[in-house]
Amino acid sequence: MTREKETTLYLGPQHPGITGNMMVKLKVAGDEIVKAETHVGYLHRAFEKLMEARTWMQSFPIVCRICVPEPDPNEENFARAVEEIEGREVPERAQYIRVLVLELARLASFGLWFGGQSGSAGLYTMPQWTVGDRDYILDLFEELTGGRVYHMYIWPGGVRKDLPEGFTDRVLKTLDYLESRLPAIDNLMFDNAVFQKRAQGVGYIDPKMAREWGVVGPPLRACGFKNDVRIDEPYEIYDKLNFEVPTETGGDVWARALVRRREYDQSISIIRQVIEKMPGGEYYNKVPNPLTWTIPRGDAYVKTESVRGEFGYYVVSDGSTKPRRVHVRGPAYVHAVSLLERILVGANIADVSFIMNSLGTCPPEIER
Predict the structure, then answer these.
(1) Non-local CB neighbours of 26 within 8 Å, separated by 6+ positions
(2) Per-residue confidence (pLDDT) for residue 138, from 0 to 100
(3) Cβ(352)–Cβ(25) under 8 Å?
(4) Whole-number Cα distances in Å, 98 to 58, 67, 143, 240, 243
(5) Distance between CA 295 and CA 51 in Å, rounded?
(6) pLDDT by residue (tens digit) across 209-233?
């Protein structure tokens, strides 16, 4: 039997199938992957170190850059960490508004994921649809925060400004539109025999491995584990809302797709509940002069359920006007390095982007 000649291929950092600015070095025999190595460093980095040279409020615009498709959990984590160290209370209305923003961010991220996952299987109509639909959510963010992608809206003490008049009505109208699009998305993607055949049995994660390697979010829930920070360790007002944590047991790309599709429905439901229960009152517990504001000595670890899974921040204060240390623990470090390098072995070259999209990676979380 003749052994296939081994060849080295470089996928990224500019390949359209790469989820962000990173590269995967592949050693292949024929069209089968023998070895995979993740390489990062092609994007802006050193966020954590930059924050040590800036005041608490000057650091706040930096954190959203740590994940471009979903910046808001970074703002949420940094704000809550500062509030926990200082002991600052957040008005109830601000907590509701924060959840509204976080769930809208999830919907926007799911739109990118639907497009990326389908596009990597050759269904190029889907990204045209979902990226376009995502723009309606970005319109809401632009109205609320002044920015479409980076919002710098959730900050220590609450949120930067209150909801504009009639904003919740426009949110509900957008949700109605997004729900009207779901049958077409299901028909093109989830009911599609080609997508099902490409996804089922591909990129399998063993449940034991998922636990041992620290897999989180949809990849973990697709292995049968009902883990969600919003339920396990509720923050803001998530404990006042009713929603489910979807799970599957297949552990493959198909199972991860089903979990995300059902989570999309749950986020829509959460937003409707938030709008229905939204209280009046203050939206911001004003902090002192940002240029001289000092945070007492202490540390805090907080975490948020991002669209890609548990997202944690460890923040240390030495009592000065600047953070002593900020450490970010995003899902991508495990998903895009230790996990991806292992489950790609034995896979077909054509499935690299397909598997990578299913894990939900964001390179700046690794090179931070």
Answers:
(1) 8, 9, 10, 11, 33, 35, 36, 344, 349, 352
(2) 96
(3) no
(4) 20, 18, 15, 14, 17
(5) 14
(6) 999 999 999 999 999 999 999 999 9
Residue 202, both tokens: 């591909």
Contacts for 261 with CB less than 8 Å, ≥ 6 apart: 186, 190
For residue 349, the one-letter residue type is: I
Cβ-contact 199, 121 below 8 angstroms: yes
Contacts of 174 (CB under 8 A, 6+ apart): 136, 137, 139, 140
Tokens of 212: 């041992």
Cis ω for the linkage preceding 13 (within 30 of 0) = yes
Q: Residue 265, CB half-sphere, CA atoms under 13 Å: how many?
A: 12
Q: How far apart are CA 226 and CA 49, in angstroms?
A: 35
Give CA–CA dist 118/257, Å, rounded: 10
Write the pLDDT tens digit of every residue in 80-94.
999 999 999 999 999
Cβ-count burial 327-361 (b if 16+ within 10 Å, e if not):
ebbbbbbbbbbebbeebbeebeeebbbbbbbbbbb
Paired tokens of 270: 């959460």
Cα separation, 131 vs 128, in Å, equals: 6
Q: What is the DSSP letter of 37?
A: E
Tokens encoding 137? 């959510």
92 contact partners, CB below 8 Å, separation of at least 6: 237, 279, 281
- CATH of segment(s) 33-365: 1.10.645.10
Integer-rounded Cα Rg, in Å, for the chain is 21
Question: Do 336 and 284 touch, CB atoms closer than 8 A?
Answer: no
Distance CA 116, CA 179 (A): 20
pTM: 0.95
Give the separation between CA 6 and CA 201, rounded to whole angstroms.
Answer: 25
Give me the helices (H) in 186-320, please. Answer: 193-199, 207-213, 217-221, 229-232, 253-277
The rounded distance, in Å, linking the Cα atoms of 261 and 107 is 10
